[in-house]
Amino acid sequence: MKVKKISIKAGDLLVYLFAVVLVMAGFLGVYVMGAKSDSSSVVVEVDGREVYSTRIYDGMKPVEFRVDVGDGRHNIVLITYEEVRIKQADCPDQLCVKWGAIRYPGQAIICLPHRVVVKIIGRQEESPEVDDIAS
Amino acid sequence: LQGCTKAGVKEYKKDLFALNTWVNIRIYAGKEGPEILDKAVGRIQEIENRMSVTIQDSEVSLINSNAGKQPMRVHDDTFEVIEKALEYSSLSNGVFDITIYPIVKLWGITSEHPKVPTDAEIQEKLRFVGYGNVILNKENKTVYLQKEGMGIDLGAIAKGYAADEVARVLKEEGVAHALINMGGNVVAIGGKPNGQPWRIGIQDPRSDGVQRHIAVVEVMDGSVVSSGDYERYNVEVYRKTGKRYHHIFDPSTGYPASSGLMATTVVAPYSIDADALSTIIFVMGPEKGLELVNQMEGVDAMVITLEKKIYTSQGFEKKLFVTDEEYEVQP
Quick count: other Cβ atoms within 10 Å of Cβ B264? Predict the structure, then answer.
């Protein structure tokens, strides 16, 4: 088998180096911004198993995620920078849809019939008004 | 006095589906935190596998399938919970009754296909309801349902028991600050790590599913449990007619209890008591229910009437902070 020799010219090398620096700067920039803003993410679980997660950041495009729980059953999660909600579902009680929006780390939406949880993870606020709710 | 947080103590959390509800555990512990949480989860699953009526080979399911046939030997856990349930049955003159299961199944409020049964169907199933036909044998740890067709459902008490057991496991492991939420049954161990009490919100029964509170109670070591017509109900019928067929049944009628209340909350040292009592008060109604609680040591309660008026047991109004002016505490 013939091996093709790869020759790198000085000019090419410069371009490669530049590219590497750009990528690194990109990572660094994201990292710094993430640390500066209240970096939080949304995690979707089905019966304790993570099926989706995404970071929330200023200027992000709204995301719609369809959770398939088998037998064609589903929940559709709408994630925007401001809030997270379950937009539509075919569960019998519809409680997850009625749950409304969650906005802060520590909050979660539960769909009991589908065993789906949508939660916001991140640094919790200093002192929430209540620690938990008896419902 | 400053609440002391020991060095290296961190917050650890765990959540899971168990006992047909959503469970949250938050503890403050050293680096052994995750193992402690695993032990707590193991205990919950043990209880679920023994007491869930939706698990086919659970002890409760075996008791039910052997109704009218033979007594079934059960684990101490199951025996203890059934014994406690029967105590609450006689205390409440049958208002609390685990043999309501045939009625629960008939309505199927939490099932895939809820329905509104005919009066004849309800009367037919009511024949099998009656805690007097549950026979316990303390020595052999057996449970026997005397009539074929009977069935028990520990749904109104098992979550409370499980929450207490989680608290016991955590304390045994040296946890001094924790908050357990088992589908709305809240149990606090100690206060917050900073020494302040835990602040527990009382769910707004008319928020249409949105998690929001209308009042706050502060708790150190104890349980807060709410029950109401808003938790689980036949959504389809509600949408069409506005009538709320909910999951708390009156054993004397076979229909969802209608005592003029939409919610009750009980604060007690143990969650098993708070769980049973929140149901009992809901079925009994405001006057009889609060009177019962007033006779009990260390138990507080509040009810919300269909007119959004709050009534409390003696002295509880001073510990309750109402945060929604739509709801008024009555003298």
Answer: 30
